[in-house]
Write a structure and sequence with these properties.
Length: 383
């Protein structure tokens, strides 16, 4: 990687963090309001009151925020580097499994079979010892390292092979989806030691606190909000730095950037790896809130859905990815309850609608409306 670009990136990182644009300021204010008001409405407002938020509502909003963080990770590489990854659901699921393994180790003798070491599914399968990759997962700090290390290492190895071979465009998208499907098939096997098709569930506690307690639920919710904020502003600092400008140049004219002297594959590799680690964090926060992780999270359709979130909100903006993730998943919650069989058709129609009529997404449409209003005001003032 060009050393001058990296040095200037580190110098401009703080300035990029502190110079907020209007959309980022709105995002920060809304996120702060959500992180403050939701705990108040859940813990302090009595049940039966119109403003009370149930535990289900808190969990649902927390899940939306996890999806928003995942969408930011995808927008970072797709919107700013032109890498259309359909495999980020794999990094999300791997982070979730790392957290799930930790939570399973916390069950101990309170499981159905009462084994202090082996999870219930291992006892059911007549396993007599813990697999080597489960060792250490009873320690929170070690599990959190795995949340970052496993998705990051997989992304690094995959990206090193793909970007050095100059695999781009639709071919790279197909390969990322093939990677996800391979992991899906692997994790469905009981022999892998991850619970097979049932996955990991029946969690009891996290760092010694009962997961069913309202305070713990709110703690996870606030932690998700903090992670979303840190993820957003870190990605924003990256794209506004010298490193980010080089990445956008690679997106717009890769051959020209390579001709100038930039090691294009290195820029892509590090951005792809960081994005995968961010997706892993989203998965780790997702699991203790929903209470389960299974191979279904690796489903290729999930990778396509993430791309739809970003496209609907507006790629290349970061905040648009958040808007798209929240709106599309809210629509999914409503439609799957009212018309379960119609959701996939609605998702496909939504993607076609955005592709044909809203190429810049919802935030792009709002920007166009504001620009037209400014132009109309300017024209009236000049006349």
């Amino acid at each position: 990687m060009n050393s001058n670009a990296m040095n200037e990136s580190s110098l401009t990182l703080w300035s990029a963090l502190t110079s907020l644009d209007r959309p980022s300021g709105i995002f920060g204010a809304v996120l702060l309001a959500v992180c403050v008001l939701v705990p108040i409405f859940h813990l302090l407002v009595p049940e039966g009151h119109a403003l009370h938020l149930s535990g289900y509502s808190v969990t649902l909003i927390g899940k939306y925020m996890c999806y928003a963080l995942l969408a930011i990770a995808v927008d970072l590489i797709w919107g700013y580097c032109g890498i259309l990854s359909l495999g980020h659901t794999a990094f999300f699921a791997l982070g979730g499994y790392a957290m799930g393994m930790y939570l399973m180790r916390q069950i101990g003798s309170r499981g159905v079979y009462g084994d202090p070491v082996l999870p219930d599914f291992m006892v059911f399968l007549n396993w007599d010892q813990l697999p080597w990759f489960w060792h250490g997962m009873d320690m929170f700090w070690f599990a959190m390292i795995m949340v970052l290390l496993v998705p990051g290492l997989l992304a690094y190895v995959f990206g090193w092979l793909a970007f050095r071979s100059r695999v781009t465009g639709v071919y790279l998208s197909i390969i990322t989806q093939a990677l996800t499907y391979a992991l899906l098939l692997a994790f469905f096997r009981n022999e892998m030691g991850f619970g097979g098709n049932n996955g990991l569930t029946d969690f009891k506690e996290i760092v010694g606190f009962d997961l069913n307690l309202p305070g713990v639920r709110i703690g996870l919710f606030v932690a998700t909000g903090v992670a979303l904020g840190l993820g957003y502003f870190t990605c924003r600092a990256i794209v506004r730095s010298r490193f980010g400008r080089v990445v956008q140049a690679i997106r717009d004219a890769e051959s020209r950037a390579r001709f100038i002297g930039y090691r294009v594959e290195n820029y892509k590799l590090w951005l792809f790896t960081f994005s995968a680690m961010l997706a892993g964090v989203a998965g780790a926060l997702y699991v203790p809130q929903v209470g389960i992780i299974n191979p279904g999270e690796f489903a290729p359709i999930n990778g396509i859905e993430i791309v739809v979130w970003v496209a609907v909100g507006g790629r290349g903006t970061l905040y648009g990815a958040v808007v798209g993730a929240v709106l599309v998943n809210y629509a999914k919650t409503v439609l799957t309850d009212a018309m379960p069989d119609a959701w996939l058709y609605a998702l496909g129609a939504l993607f076609l609608l955005v592709t044909l009529f809203l190429p810049r997404g919802i935030v792009g449409l709002l920007g166009q409306i504001q620009e037209r209003r400014r132009n109309a005001t300017t024209a009236q003032a000049s006349s």
